[in-house]
Amino acid sequence: MAIPKILLFYKFTPLPDPEAIRLWQRTLCEANNLRGRIIISEDGINATVGGDLDDVKRYVRTTREYAPFKDADIKWSDGLGDDFPRLSVKVRPELVTFTVPEEVKVTADGVQGGGVHLKPEQLHELVEARGEEVVFFDGRNAMEAEIGRMRGAVIPNTDTTRDFIDEIESGKYDDLKNRPVVTYCTGGIRCEVLSVLMKNRGFTDVYQMDGGIVRYGEKYGNDGLWDGSLYVFDKRMHIEFGQGAESLGSCVGCGERTPVFVNCANLACRKQYLRCEQCTEAGRVPTCGQCEGAPA
Ligand SMILES: [Zn+2]
Ligand SMILES: [Zn+2]
C-alpha cells in the first residue's frame, strides 16, 4: 500500500432506506479496496475505513455525491497499512448503541436537543469564562481514558456505551446538573447522543466537543487540556498528538508508563489491559488477572 490513510466520519441525517445505503457503501468500499467498519441506521452513518490514499479519496468523492453526506466532517489520519482486518457494513437500530433509539430525534440539521457544539477554541473560551466550574465528562468506555483524557475529567464507570444510561441515572453525577458540562469522545459521535440523554435527565448546561478529541488534538496538540494518548479502534490502537506526549496508563506487570493495550491470553475473556513491550517480550502477565479460569 503506497500511502495508507484512515478516515473517520459520521453524519446524523434521516435515511429512509438504510439497506440501500448499506449496499451502496459496501460496493463502493469493495471497489476501492477499503476495509473498516460502517454502521448505518435510519438516523445516518458512522464510518471508519482505511486504504490507500487514492482509493480513499475516490471513496470520499463518491460518498459526498449523495446530498445528505455532502458536508460530512471527514477526519483523515495516517494509517500503518492493513489497518483493519476486514470490511463490515451493517444496518443497526442505533449508530451508537446507547439502547435508546427512540430518544434520539434526527432531522436534516442533525441530532435535535443535544449539547452546544464547541470548537476547540470555543472550548477554551468557555474555560476562560467559567474557570473551575467547567467539568469535562468522558463519553467513552472507561478503558479508553486509562491512557489519555481531558485534564480533571470525570470518567464514568462504563465498559460499553450501553452503561451510560445507568451511570447518569445513578445519582453519582447529580452535583454536575447545574454546572457547565462538556462531553467529549474520540470523533464526536458518542457525544451527539450522550449530550441529549444528559439534558433529558436534568443536566442543564451541556456542551459537546465538536469533532471530538481528534479535532481538539489537531488544534492544540500536547499544549492544551488534553493529556496522554488517544485510544483508536484500528491496528494503531493509540495515537499521540506530536512529540512528548506521555501516556497516562501503567503496565500491569511493571508499572512503567505505556499506551499499549493487549488482549487477555484467555480466549474466553475479551478484556484488554495495559502491558509494556518489555513485559510482553519477557512473557510476563499473559492474562488480565481478572477473568474466570485464567491460569495464574
Ligand atoms: Zn511492563
Ligand atoms: Zn482475562
Automatic annotation (TrEMBL):
Keyword annotations of the record: Oxidoreductase, tRNA processing
Domain called Rhodanese: residue spans: 130-225
Keyword hit for Oxidoreductase: yes
InterPro entries, per the entry: Rhodanese-like_dom, Rhodanese-like_dom_sf, Rhodanese_C, TrhO, TRHO_N
Catalytically driven reaction(s): uridine(34) in tRNA + AH2 + O2 = 5-hydroxyuridine(34) in tRNA + A + H2O
Listed Gene3D superfamilies: 3.30.70.100, Rhodanese-like domain
GO biological process: tRNA modification
tRNA processing as UniProt keyword: yes
Pfam families attached to this UniProt entry: Rhodanese, Rhodanese_C, UPF0176_N
UniProt EC number: 1.14.-.-
GO terms of molecular function: oxidoreductase activity, acting on paired donors, with incorporation or reduction of molecular oxygen
Protein family (similarity comment): Belongs to the TrhO family.
Main function: Catalyzes oxygen-dependent 5-hydroxyuridine (ho5U) modification at position 34 in tRNAs.
Name used for this protein in its record: tRNA uridine(34) hydroxylase
Source organism: Helcobacillus massiliensis
Upper lineage: Bacteria, Bacillati, Actinomycetota, Actinomycetes, Micrococcales
